[in-house]
Structures are given as structure tokens and as C-alpha cells.
């Protein structure tokens, strides 16, 4: 599927208001069926689909393009269509668009009066499912609430002026320069992603939660745009007709160093089937005793290595290049949620230890830029980015 939020055109001045008190099947093994589904299958609620329309939306021949049937926050737009046949029966991708509000009670001891600071924020998410819709459904139904819980925990810090951080009980005695509004929001997003993955792992012990999903989430808070990404979905800002990348695709190639470091620390994860080394060309028997270029963890360049029999018979942990790059010959993305039961093709080696839900967070300062209604944020799955470049999209 190619799904996208676009047209976030109304870039609002998100200041606090003070008032009186008042969440690709690529060589995977079958996932075990455990219990009932955690969440019933639906398309995003803002599409307003009937049951009949929902079934029609999964037609791989007609492939209808669906758009939101109600107004979305910040004048956002949305469209989706199912892929050409890779997904079976249902569209495995999901999305949400929500507005929330933080409420902080301010106690004025001198005036003996309480006020409430209301701080609205907006959250958008795109989740590209693969090998089943279970993980994307779990994510779209829970992640936004987890994010809200994490932001609620730190709302005193978010609302407070940084020069007054020392007065906050949670920061009493802390070294103020080490804390910033941006840093605590990034931490909340990072915690939210990791907790979401942990919930899927917990709930799959009781419920049937199939597959995995990538995640890209955009958070508009206090004149800042935070984009948290885990996987190969993508977010860009189109400003003055030019793209500003707000995320980086996580593939076996871009995550190579992290994967090789993990494999070096825990070689048993590769069994005797794979090698963490990346060779410039596949070692063959004729190369034994000769040198070929390869690279290991923490290397950006190439170095010569004497080829052994082991190098010949072990498969490279990362194979292919570009969109054909695969981890353990199985999956083309290295971050996201779920995939706890995913096994490498033909070997049965678990892929999940090499995957992570850890997002990378990018910040865009809306207050420092001249934004107008022609400048938009676009979020989409790789169904869009595989076919058009950032430049063409803008």
C-alpha cells in the first residue's frame, strides 16, 4: 500500500493557553496462531468505511484509492490504496491522526488561586505492515495513547520555561543545561516506541498478533515538529518546492554498523550459517588463500582480508543492495515493531534479535522558518518512495 498524510498546511502557532482552573512478507516462516485477535481488523476510522466498502478496499484488481471522509487535524489530507497483491486478503498498513491536550495545574499560593495551562498537540502516524496485520493493528490502537502517557509524565517540564527548570521538583538539584524541552520530548518518543514493541511481545503470549510493521510518527508540539521513525517509511517537508528530509530509511545497508556490532558481541545469533563481514564480492573456493576487500563493524571504508573456507561457506548477514538489500536473506527493513516469530529463510535463525524498535527523532523548528500554506509535511510508506523521489514528490 502507499498511504500518506499530506497537506498539513495550517501551521499553527502552538503556544500554551492559560485559563482559570476549571499504535511485506519477505521469506518469513508461518506465524503461530495463539488465541484470538487482539484487535479486530478495520481500516483507519477517519476513512468512514462501511463493512462493504472495507471489503472492496482490499480488492487487488480494482485497487480503489481511499481518502479521509472527515476533516483531519491541521487540515491534513490522507489517501491509501492496497498493494498489487503482496498482502493476502487485507491491507496490512494503518494510520492515525489525533489531537491531544496536556493540562497542567498551576498553584499560586499568594493569590490562593489555581490556573490550568492547556497545551494542545497533534500526532500523526503511518505504519507499514508485513507478514500480517496484527502488529500494525496493535500499534495503531495503542501507540498514540502510550505517547500521550509519556508526555503527561513530563508535562510540567514541557510547559515550564527553561529558565525556571530549577524550580521544578523533578529537576531539583539537577544540572539544568543537560535538560531541554526538546530532549525530554525525544526521550518520551523513544520510550513510547520501545514500550509499544514490548506490549506486542507481551500480548502475543495470549493473542494472535501476526507480522511486524514500520512506524513513522510526527508530533506537533510548542512550535516544534518532532518526527520519530523506525523503518523504511519516510517523512519529508516540501518547502518552496524543495524537500527537507525528516527521517532516514532503516535498511540493512543504513543500519550495517549497528548490526555488525551486535553480531560481533553475540556471534551465536548468526549460528554457523552467516558471517557479519560484508565482502565486496562473494568469496568462492577459488579465492581461498587470496585476499578480497571486506568491511567489518565500525568501518566505512574497505580493507583486504585473507579468505578462508569459512568465508566461502557462510552467507553474508547483509546481502543485496538498495531496495534489494536483505537482513539474513529475509527482511528489507531493520527497525519497527513486532516480527517476534520471524525466522530466516531455510535456516530457522531468529531475525528479531537484530531488529529494534528504537526510533531516530528529527526536529524542525517551525518558529524559525517562514511557513505558508504551500509548505507541507508528507508521510508515506515505501509504496510511494520506491516509485518517486523526494524531489518529484515536492
From TrEMBL:
InterPro entries: PP2C, PPM-type-like_dom_sf, PPM-type_phosphatase-like_dom. One of its GO terms (cellular component) is mitochondrion. SMART domains: PP2Cc. Coiled coil: none annotated. It comes from the Eukaryota. One of its GO terms (molecular function) is [pyruvate dehydrogenase (acetyl-transferring)]-phosphatase activity. PANTHER family: GM14138P, PROTEIN PHOSPHATASE 2C. This is Phosphatase 1H-like. It comes from Paramuricea clavata.
Amino acid at each position: 500500500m502507499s498511504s500518506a498524510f499530506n497537506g498539513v498546511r495550517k501551521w499553527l502557532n502552538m503556544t500554551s493557553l492559560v485559563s482559570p482552573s476549571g499504535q511485506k512478507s519477505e521469506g518469513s516462516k508461518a506465524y503461530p496462531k495463539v488465541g484470538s485477535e487482539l484487535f479486530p481488523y478495520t481500516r483507519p476510522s477517519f476513512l468512514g468505511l462501511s463493512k462493504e466498502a472495507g471489503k472492496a478496499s482490499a480488492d487487488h484488481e480494482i485497487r480503489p484509492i481511499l481518502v479521509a471522509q472527515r476533516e483531519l487535524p491541521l487540515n491534513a489530507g490522507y489517501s491509501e490504496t492496497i498493494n498489487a497483491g503482496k498482502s493476502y486478503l487485507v491491507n496490512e498498513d494503518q494510520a492515525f491522526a489525533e489531537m491531544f491536550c496536556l493540562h497542567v495545574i498551576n498553584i499560586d499560593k499568594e493569590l490562593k488561586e489555581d490556573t490550568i495551562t492547556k497545551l494542545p498537540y497533534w500526532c500523526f502516524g503511518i505504519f507499514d505492515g508485513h507478514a500480517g496485520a496484527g502488529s500494525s493493528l496493535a500499534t495503531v490502537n495503542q501507540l498514540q495513547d502510550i505517547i500521550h502517557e509519556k508526555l503527561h509524565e513530563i508535562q510540567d517540564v514541557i510547559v515550564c520555561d527553561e529558565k525556571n527548570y530549577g524550580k521544578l521538583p523533578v529537576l531539583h538539584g539537577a544540572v539544568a543545561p543537560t535538560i531541554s524541552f526538546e530532549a525530554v520530548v525525544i526521550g518520551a518518543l523513544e520510550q513510547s516506541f520501545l514500550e509499544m514493541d514490548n506490549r506486542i511481545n507481551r500480548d502475543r503470549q495470549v493473542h494472535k498478533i501476526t507480522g511486524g510493521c514500520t512506524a513513522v510518527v510526527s508530533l506537533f508540539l510548542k512550535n516544534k515538529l518532532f518526527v520519530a521513525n523506525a523503518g523504511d517509511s519516510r517523512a519529508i517537508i516540501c518547502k518552496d518546492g524543495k524537500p527537507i528530509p525528516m527521517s532516514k530509511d532503516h535498511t540493512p545497508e543504513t543500519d550495517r554498523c549497528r548490526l555488525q556490532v551486535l553480531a560481533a558481541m553475540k556471534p551465536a545469533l548468526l549460528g554457523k550459517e552467516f558471517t557479519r563481514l560484508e565482502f565486496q564480492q562473494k568469496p568462492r573456493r577459488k579465492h581461498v588463500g587470496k585476499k578480497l576487500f571486506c568491511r567489518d563493524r565500525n568501518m566505512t571504508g574497505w580493507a583486504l582480508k585473507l579468505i578462508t573456507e569459512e568465508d566461502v561457506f557462510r552467507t553474508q548477514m547483509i546481502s543485496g543492495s538498495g531496495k534489494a538489500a536483505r537482513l539474513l536473506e529475509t527482511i528489507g527493513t531493520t527497525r519497527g515493531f513486532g516480527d517476534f516469530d520471524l525466522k530466516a529463510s531455510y535456516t530457522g535463525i531468529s531475525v528479531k534479535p537484530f531488529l529494534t524498535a528504537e526510533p531516530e527523532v528529527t526536529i524542525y523548528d517551525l518558529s524559525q522558518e517562514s511557513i505558508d500554506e504551500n509548505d507541507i509535511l508528507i508521510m508515506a510508506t515505501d509504496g510511494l518512495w520506491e516509485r518517486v523521489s523526494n524531489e518529484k514528490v515536492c
